[in-house]
Design goal:
The structure holds 3 protein chains of 3 kinds. Chain B has 18 helices and 10 strands. By secondary structure, chain B is an alpha/beta fold. Chain C has 2 domains: 47 residues, no CATH class; 249 residues, MetI-like fold. The chains are: A mainly alpha, B alpha/beta, C mainly alpha. Chain B: Pfam families: SBP_bac_1 (PF01547).
């Protein structure tokens, strides 16, 4: 019964209770499906190669337990630096994508002007064509700007990559903001900037958090642009750094699993920070 | 969130400035080596570069490998934009020839080190007319079969020399033990073509004679030799592991090193992996011949070369490095550091690894050839090499007959290749 | 597609407009639009021995009529449609269900569930490819033993290696990975629905089912439409999972080839196949047009009919 109290609010009637049990049952079942493969990864990150393949489902035993993967990752690669690079690039790019994306989404949905349709279409195009296609031109541009092997180049490209989706999703959310709110402010002669930053932006928080999460994942996991634009030792990101354990004929799975297991932690932290906004959005919506 | 955002611009500027500076510091006088051999990173930093720096302490070398599957595309992009390294590791034949034709690789004619290589070794990196050399040969790989000696002893098996013996051994392993007789999968497709078709085929198409026949148009892929090669591959199916259609290359390696499989169709590069991972003794045998006394043929494939980026600012230093790579010293270092990759230079090199010794000894007993799809024949559309992967995997899976495989590849070749039309 | 029905009184020069739009647009134009157009234009050229020559629509005609190219192209397109259908039938309904359950009032542990279910979406495709191949592998026995233990052992097969089942299996993996995205988007919208609307409906005696179908569903329809468009676009650009699991040749016998892998092979080359930036650009342009037409049709037939609500 104690266990039940974790899942159920106090003072629930029988009907509510059975409903609650069903909801928890379904969510729990899906959580297991979502987590099972991840548990296998984490479990096997703590085993040696033979331990992994002799019995992938077994928990690490005294015989198979091994930190050799983590050791290799920490000793043979500059994991801390790679993680810092990834974090810096991701946070900067995501921060700018949601800020610039919200501003652009607001401009495109709120104001009517001649080039609106064209610009809207240009942004839509970015969702539909993979930016990888433009690799050679992008690299040429970066070479000319003398930005090869800098994190700046990655931040710039990721902003360009993330903006279209951000503008699209945020525009959808801007449309649900009541017009009266903005018009009342205009009647009080509030400037357009203050309308956006003090009224609109707070209302967009949950949507911006969602966009942040979606933008962050492909950036964090991207291998291609770090490989092309910033492959040097000092600017390597985690995903690229891990690739040194993926060989032509032999892949050092213990190290790959260890490195990628560690690489989940920073994204998880970022995700938690962003998803806080989701809940705050709920309460701020109720106050309004 | 807003606080973070509004704080961003100033933070951003500070970050950008430091990053820019970091970028500037990169442009030093170091030779950057582009390679797909991530596997060799430690050998370069621990062995090769220190040995070179003993002779030339002033030339700094930085080995910067790219994950193998992305190497060609990443290198292409970097060369086009002008950010590629000084020394380029060359894939054999057309992949590098195209880079040379596009002006990305430096012509190496007259490089002193080239004198230490035979024409056959150099053939993978010259223009079709044989006039211009654009990469220095570095290493070749040999195909064959690696077997688990303990399992062979346990089941009282002898190493097969002919195909009859080969299939008898497989049948015996299958009926008398729970070991997987033949350890290969088709999930990645390339093993079917490389460790299968190109491994056993030279015995059928008589090595170089057959390969050149395809190029000059006197032989066809529908000839008996090729159909028979696929027929033999089709006979492998019952001896492969259960669910081999989803068995990856790395699965095959693990299956073998865990001692669960008896015979492994191999490339000599596997020696290094198995040395590190297997705790039993293993040996090797060349592809079995049709009948006792036949000449044996092996695939001794020129696989790695080294060239110079035509846009490099350090060409002289790069040439010094390449000349050193042609030396006996480098050959010996490399062959023993990476057993299974065999030096191509004329120097006699002492190889210490027993399995690698076995592989290289076949050069004396058998006739050598290279993979038949590599020179010229994979230039057009459809691409012969891709087709070979696809049809060989399908023949083993049993979703295509050997005759269909032959017809499909021959038709592909006839579509664009003059001598076959 | 993002037409505004709002109006605004005219002002001399809309500085604020460009302050809002300018910075993002500038970066986007420089690092995305220009490189993309610069590359797409190559589809009208042919490259021979380093010389490019304008050839008009020749590459496109080759792509859809020349047997060597067209069979691969149509095959990839048809696989892609199946891949998309699978996501629409599985990923989005599951995402919707999870989002609705997560937003039930007073649900304990909601944020834990949300985080855990979203975990697969955050993982690198390298891990996902590795672990699912390990689980489904006939050699290491995880799924086979599991099926035996529930008495379905005879149904086990090397799914990832068979022509008939490889694409479906990969679709399952992809759905598993990305279910978090529709879930999060729909969840964010559900959070935005003011409680008083729901309360009013409950006070009026509506059952939870009725509340869902009459109140919540119409309110989240625009989000579902958006999720569908995003799924469509993402599926037609899908590449990484197939590449990580099956390689660029997308075997067996191209049964898992999608437009993304076909484009990669064509544009960057593969093994001994030389990459062709002109043919590759033609494939990419065609992909873009397919997606564009799909999105337009969707907007025209569906989005127009969806009413938007403002709270």
């Amino acid at each position: 019964m104690k266990l039940m109290q974790v899942f159920l609010p106090k003072n629930t009637s029988a009907g509510q209770m059975s409903k609650s049990v069903t909801i928890h049952g379904i969510l729990l079942a899906y959580t297991v499906i979502a987590l099972f493969p991840i548990l296998i990864v984490i479990m096997n990150a703590f085993k040696d190669r033979k331990g992994i393949f002799r019995d992938p489902l077994a928990l690490p035993t005294s015989e198979t337990f091994s930190l050799v993967g983590f050791e290799q990752v920490l000793l043979r690669s500059d994991f801390g630096l790679f993680a810092w690079n990834s974090l810096l690039v991701t946070v900067l790019a995501v921060g700018l994508v949601i800020l610039l994306g919200a501003m652009a989404a607001w401009a495109l949905t709120e104001y009517r002007f001649r080039m609106n349709l064209l610009i809207t279409f240009l942004f839509a195009m970015g969702i539909m064509i993979p930016i990888r296609l433009g690799t050679v031109s992008i690299l040429r541009l970066i070479v000319e700007l003398n930005l090869v092997n800098t994190l700046t180049s990655l931040v710039l490209v990721y902003i360009a990559q993330g903006l279209p989706l951000a503008v699209y999703i945020l525009s959808e959310f801007v449309r649900t903001i009541p017009k009266e709110l903005v018009e009342a402010a205009r009647c009080d002669a509030v400037s357009e900037y203050r309308i956006f930053f003090s009224i609109i932006l707070p209302l967009l928080k949950p949507a911006m958090a969602t966009v942040a999460v979606f933008t962050m994942i492909p950036i964090w996991n991207d291998l291609w642009f770090p490989l092309i634009l910033a492959p040097s030792e000092e600017t390597r990101t985690i995903t690229l750094g891990v690739q040194q354990f993926v060989g032509q004929y032999v892949t050092n799975w213990t190290s790959v699993l260890a490195a990628l297991t560690m690489a989940i932690v920073p994204v998880l932290i970022l995700y938690t920070i962003f998803s806080r906004q989701l809940i705050r959005g709920l309460t701020s919506g109720a106050v309004k | 969130m807003r606080k973070v955002c509004s704080a961003l611009p100033s933070y951003k500027l500070a970050c950008f400035a430091t990053l820019l500076l970091a970028g500037m510091a990169q442009a030093s006088d170091t030779l950057y080596v582009e390679s797909w051999r991530t596997d060799d990173a430690n050998i370069w930093s621990d062995t090769i570069i220190p040995a070179f720096n003993k002779h030339h302490p002033d030339i700094k070398i930085q080995f910067s490998p790219t994950p193998p599957t992305d190497y060609n595309s990443a290198l292409q992009a970097k060369l086009q934009a002008g950010s590629a390294g000084d020394i380029i590791t060359c894939r054999p034949f057309d992949a590098s020839l195209q880079l040379f034709d596009s002006g990305y690789l430096e012509k190496l004619n007259g490089l002193k080190g080239l004198e230490d290589f035979s024409d056959v070794a150099k053939s993978a990196w010259v223009t079709d007319d044989g006039r211009e050399q654009f990469c220095l040969p570095m290493a070749s790989v040999i195909h064959g079969f690696i077997y688990n000696k303990e399992i062979f002893e346990e089941l009282n098996l002898t190493v097969p020399k002919t195909q009859d013996e080969f299939f008898k051994v497989l049948a015996k392993i299958k009926s008398e033990s729970r070991y997987t007789p033949l350890d290969m999968g088709t999930a990645d497709q390339w093993e079917a073509a490389t460790m299968g078709f190109q491994n056993i085929g030279p015995n059928y198409w008589k090595g170089e004679a057959g390969r050149k026949g395809l190029i000059d148009g006197t032989a066809k892929l529908t000839d008996q030799a090729y159909v028979d090669t696929w027929k033999e591959l089709a006979k492998w199916k019952p001896y492969l592991g259960r669910g081999f259609e989803a068995q990856k290359y790395s699965d095959s390696q693990n299956l073998f090193t865990l001692g669960r499989a008896a015979i492994y169709p191999a490339g000599s590069w596997d020696i290094q992996t198995f040395n590190n991972q297997a705790d039993f003794e293993f040996g090797a045998f060349p592809p079995p011949v049709l009948k006792q006394g036949d000449t044996c043929y092996i695939s001794d494939h020129t696989d790695i070369g080294m060239g110079i980026n035509a846009a490099s600012k350090h060409k002289e230093a790069a040439k010094i490095f390449l000349n050193w790579m042609a030396s006996a010293e480098f050959g010996e270092l490399f062959a023993n550091a990476v057993p299974g990759f065999f030096p191509l230079s004329n120097h006699s090199v002492a190889i210490k690894d027993p399995a690698a010794q076995t592989f290289i000894s076949w050069r004396q007993q058998c006739e050598s050839t290279i993979r038949n799809s590599y020179q010229i024949l994979s230039r057009g559309t459809p691409n012969l090499e891709n087709q070979l992967w696809n049809v060989s995997a399908q023949v083993i899976n049993g979703t295509m007959t050997p005759e269909q495989a032959a017809t499909e590849t021959q038709q592909g070749l006839e579509q664009w290749y003059g001598p076959q039309q | 597609m993002m037409f505004s029905k709002r109006t605004k009184e005219h002002k001399p020069f809309p500085w604020h407009l460009w302050v809002f739009l300018g910075p993002g647009l500038l970066i986007y134009l420089t690092f995305s639009v220009y490189p993309l157009l610069d590359t797409l234009i190559l589809s009208l050229y042919e490259e021979q021995a380093g010389q490019s020559e304008f050839v008009g629509l020749k590459n496109f005609i080759t792509l859809v009529t020349d047997e060597n190219w067209s069979s691969a192209f149509w095959n990839a397109l048809s696989n892609n449609l199946q891949f998309f259908a699978f996501h629409m039938l599985l990923q989005n309904p599951i995402g919707l269900l999870l989002a609705v359950l997560l937003s039930s009032p007073k649900l304990r542990l909601a944020s834990s569930y949300r985080t855990l279910i979203f975990m697969p979406t955050m993982l690198s495709v390298v891990i996902i490819g590795f672990v699912w191949q390990l689980i489904l592998s006939p050699i290491w026995g995880i799924s086979e033993e599991f099926l035996y233990s529930i008495g379905l052992g005879q149904y086990f097969d090397a799914w990832l290696g068979k022509e008939g089942s490889a694409l479906v299996t990969l679709s399952f993996i992809s759905v598993w990975q990305f279910v978090g995205i529709p879930m999060m988007l729909i969840y964010a919208t559900l959070l935005n629905i003011p409680d008083d609307i729901i309360d009013a409906s409950t006070v009026d005696g509506a059952s939870p089912m009725q509340t869902f179908f009459h109140i919540k569903l119409p309110l989240i329809l625009p989000t579902i439409a958006m999720v569908s468009i995003l799924t469509f676009v993402a599926n037609f650009n899908a590449f990484e999972l197939i590449y990580a699991v099956k390689g660029a040749l997308a075997g067996p016998n191209f049964s898992t080839d999608l437009l993304g892998t076909f484009f990669y092979r064509t544009f960057f080359g593969f093994q001994l196949q030389q990459g062709s930036s002109t043919m590759g650009a033609a494939v990419a342009t065609l992909m873009f047009l397919i997606i564009l037409v799909g999105v337009m049709l969707f907007l025209f037939f569906i989005q127009r009919r969806i009413q938007r609500f403002q709270f």
